[in-house]
Amino acid sequence: MKKIYIILLLATTISFAQGGLFGKDPIINLENFDKQKVHWGYYLGFNSLDFKFDYLQPTKDVSTQTTTGFNVGLVGNLRIIEHVDLRFEPGLYITQRNITFPGFDDPVDALREAKSTYIHFPLLLKFSAKRAGNIRPYVLGGLSTALNLGSNSDAPDDNYNDRFRMKKWTNFYELGFGIDLYLEYFKFSPSIRGVFSLNDELIRDNDPNSPWTGNIQSMKTRGVFINFTFH
What we know:
By secondary structure, the protein is mainly beta. The protein has one domain (2-230): Porin (Beta Barrel). The chain is built from 2 helices and 10 strands. It has helices at 2-21, 107-110; strands at 38-55, 63-66, 69-81, 84-88, 91-100, 111-128, 135-148, 169-182, 187-197, 216-230. Strands 1, 2, 3, 4, 5, 6, 7, 8, 9 and 10 form a 10-stranded antiparallel beta sheet that branches. The longest helix is centred in the first third of the chain and has 20 residues, at 2-21.
């Protein structure tokens, strides 16, 4: 799935290249765009998230099947110096992960669906290379926090009642790269980003010996975001 995302990102970039952005002497679009102290935009994209499990005792791994999720959000960009920007990118991220726990004879008991709707608040530093014609590659990284509206954190039931529970708030660090493409009327920026949880997100079952959660030391989200940003 991650390979498909990368191919999609490359195909989008190539399509713009065929439009003349990478010509020998391109017409310079939006020449003074990056001199703005503040500018705004929005993004649409896809995500693929899974979980990293650590265990108290050696055991068979819990397996996670990822699905393709959807991202949408806003971008606020503050120019700090010529090649460095501070970005705030609040957004809505919808995803689902299907978790299979080992040790069950009945596949229905083993399977849990973690449906998550995150309100995501990343604060990122963007480091841009020197602009070449109408393209400008960049890397970015930073920290974020997210509110999981589908966490079930307040539910009294647990896995014994088919209820998988996660903590409501999660903190992440994020690293990524992308390309700014300067078109005639706007700037288009495809990017790919890795996200990694900093804290354990699992709420254990009420029974400390639960076959679902009793042996899990930590459960942390990790994944990939593909975003297409318009300024």
